[in-house]
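Students often ask why inverse folding is considered easier than folding. One informal answer: many sequences map to the same fold, so there is more than one right answer. In these notes we will look at a single instance of the problem. The structure comes first.
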């Protein structure tokens, strides 16, 4: 007897309560996390010239927009929860879909939530120093991965629990909290950029660059850039809860990604207006703090810390909202524990999936392997997003007569450019950073035996 997966058209008891602005807010919050506040240092190390730095960030944004338009076609064609899990499942088979969902659970969403929560706790320590104290209360000596409990760990877990409690109550309070946090984040960023150029004291060097830029350095810079842009596809995970998805999912993906590109270019230009690139490339400490102090003096430190806390809270909230829709879709197909597909009868939210993600995120907060696990996901993010964009070509061939309310802009050139550029970035990363890249592949491959076990369990 063979495994029978639920058909992709199977209805689900999720409410369509999100509009285009709601979904775009999730995109902006999911993308703009902590990465833009430290990864420009790595980009400057790889490239080393102001013009090339801005080029890499602009090119990465254009690639993200090409990818977003491909996801827009897929989201309108398959307006279901789960995002690329659904697209890879239908284009390349259930194993491909399972592996992207597995990676999202074990590292992609959960790892990012854990890392951002720890960073948020550290920033809170500026106002309440005890919160950022990493001195262990005790350690649970589990085999292989001891779990350490400290004040900072407790604060990070409290953040996860608080936002999980918001989102298990459904899209009513969840949407409100998400929109408020996203609005505060965007407003603060725009004010920071505008006031930085208008009132700040710039110290960026105008001397001729001393660093020769090579193709390998540019390609390496694309990995942290694309990692920082990751999340542009967030609205696709929520397609089953978006009103008029054939219109609003593409609109949310386009608006959200365009807003992020503009903000990222503005921030990087401000960084280089404030600091010489040579100093930016060797900066120690928090980039956003250093820039604020150079522009406005030490008095700006507390305001920047408050903004960073709000920014990270918005990012965590978006991931708490989006990630569980992947596991819910997998469980609905029998490829995750069946309890995860349960919908709360009153709140109409996948509460079991949300709680499961919170529990695993809390475990990662306590573990000493978090930084390594998160570093491996950059490779996986580029790999799976490229594979999902390639699904546009496959589904057009497999289902040529299917109604497509939205078609990817620039097809076939734009999605082809995204796939080819991603392949080049991955190949260069494998060549230049083989150990990290193969570790990322190992995280993905670890899901294969679990997939076969899940299939046998259904027989």
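Output (designed amino acids):
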């Amino acid at each position: 007897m063979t495994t029978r997966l639920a058909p992709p058209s199977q209805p689900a008891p999720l409410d369509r309560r999100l509009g285009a602005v709601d979904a775009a807010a999730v995109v902006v919050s999911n993308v703009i996390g902590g990465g833009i506040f430290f990864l420009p240092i790595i980009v400057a190390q790889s490239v080393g010239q102001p013009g090339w730095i801005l080029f890499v960030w602009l090119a990465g944004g254009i690639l993200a927009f090409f990818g977003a338009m491909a996801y827009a076609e897929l989201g309108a064609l398959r307006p279901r929860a789960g995002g690329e899990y659904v697209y890879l499942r239908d284009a390349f088979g259930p194993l491909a879909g399972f592996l992207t969902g597995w990676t999202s659970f074990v590292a992609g969403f959960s790892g990012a939530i854990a890392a951002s929560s720890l960073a948020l706790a550290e920033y809170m320590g500026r106002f309440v120093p005890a919160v950022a104290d990493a001195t262990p209360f005790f350690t649970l000596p589990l085999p292989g991965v001891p779990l350490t409990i400290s004040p900072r760990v407790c604060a990070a877990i409290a953040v996860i629990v608080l936002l999980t409690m918001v989102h298990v109550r459904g899209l009513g309070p969840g949407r409100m909290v998400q929109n408020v946090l996203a609005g505060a984040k965007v407003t603060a960023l725009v004010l920071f950029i505008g006031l930085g150029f208008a009132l700040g004291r710039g110290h960026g060097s105008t001397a001729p660059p001393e660093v020769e830029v090579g193709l390998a350095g540019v390609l390496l810079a694309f990995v942290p850039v694309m990692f920082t842009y990751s999340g542009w596809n967030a609205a696709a995970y929520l397609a089953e809860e978006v009103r008029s998805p054939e219109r609003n999912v593409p609109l949310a993906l386009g608006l959200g990604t365009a807003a992020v590109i503009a903000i990222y270019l503005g921030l990087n230009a401000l960084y280089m207006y404030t600091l010489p690139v040579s100093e930016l490339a060797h900066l120690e400490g928090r980039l956003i703090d250093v820039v604020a102090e150079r522009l406005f003096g030490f008095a700006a430190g507390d305001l920047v810390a408050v903004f960073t806390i709000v920014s990270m809270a918005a990012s965590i909230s978006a991931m708490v909202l989006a990630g569980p829709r992947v596991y819910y879709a997998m469980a609905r197909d029998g490829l995750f524990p069946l309890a995860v597909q349960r919908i709360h009868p009153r709140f109409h939210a996948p509460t079991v999936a949300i709680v499961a993600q919170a529990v695993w995120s809390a475990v990662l907060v306590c573990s000493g392997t978090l930084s390594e696990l998160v570093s491996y996901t950059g490779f996986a993010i580029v790999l799976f997003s490229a594979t999902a964009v390639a699904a546009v070509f496959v589904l057009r061939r497999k289902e040529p007569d299917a109604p497509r309310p939205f078609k990817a802009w620039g097809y076939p050139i734009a999605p082809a450019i995204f796939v080819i550029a991603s392949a080049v970035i991955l190949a260069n990363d494998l060549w230049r950073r083989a150990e990290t890249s193969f570790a990322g592949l190992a995280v993905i491959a670890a899901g294969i035996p679990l997939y076969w076990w899940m299939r046998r369990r259904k027989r």
